[in-house]
Amino acid sequence: LADVGGGDVVIVIEHRRYERWLLDARDRARASGATLVALTDRALSPVADGAHYVFVVAARGAGPFDSHTATMAVVHALAAGVAARLRRSAVARLDAVEAAWAAGAELVDGRR
């Protein structure tokens, strides 16, 4: 968040418990001029307050824990849409991220 400013997009994801640190980070991003996208469990959640775009996703799971399946589906759809729109620059950025992960040997991909 130290570098966030106008022209940047910040996606804020939170369900039900609404942690204060996340709301504070959202406020800092908004104050810096970033466009805010909220993914949350209800339209009137604190996370949605002040967001430019709000996606309401189902979060209740069958057991005692929230499910993030719907949230991840929306995140994947947003990422695919951004990548399709940015095309070449998105490919270059994603390749750079993958190269950084590979250089640091951070991922285990089945090869030894």
Strand count, sense and barrel status of the largest sheet are: 3 strands, parallel
Trace the largest sheet across and list its strands: 1-2-3
**Mean pLDDT, rounded to whole units?**
87
Computed structural class: alpha/beta
Radius of gyration equals 16 Å
- Outline type: globular
Distance between the termini: 36 Å
Count of DSSP H/I helices = 3
Helicity range of the residues?
Answer: 40-55%
Number of strands: 3
Strand content bin: 5-15%
Helix and strand sequence = EHEEHH
Uncertain ranges: none
Word description of this protein:
The protein is of the alpha/beta class. It is 41% helix and 14% strand. It contains three helices and three strands; from the N terminus they run βαββαα. A three-stranded parallel beta sheet has the order 1-2-3. Helix 2 packs across helix 3 (88-103). The longest helix has 18 residues, at 69-86. The chain is globular.
Main traits of this protein?
112 residues; alpha/beta; three-stranded parallel beta sheet; 3 helices; 3 strands; 41% helix
Q: Could you give a short description of this structure?
A:
By secondary structure, the protein is an alpha/beta fold. The chain has three helices and three strands, in the order E-H-E-E-H-H. It has a three-stranded parallel β-sheet.
Please outline the helices and strands.
Layout: E1 9-14, H1 20-31, E2 35-40, E3 53-56, H2 69-86, H3 88-103
Parallel strand pairs: 1-2, 2-3
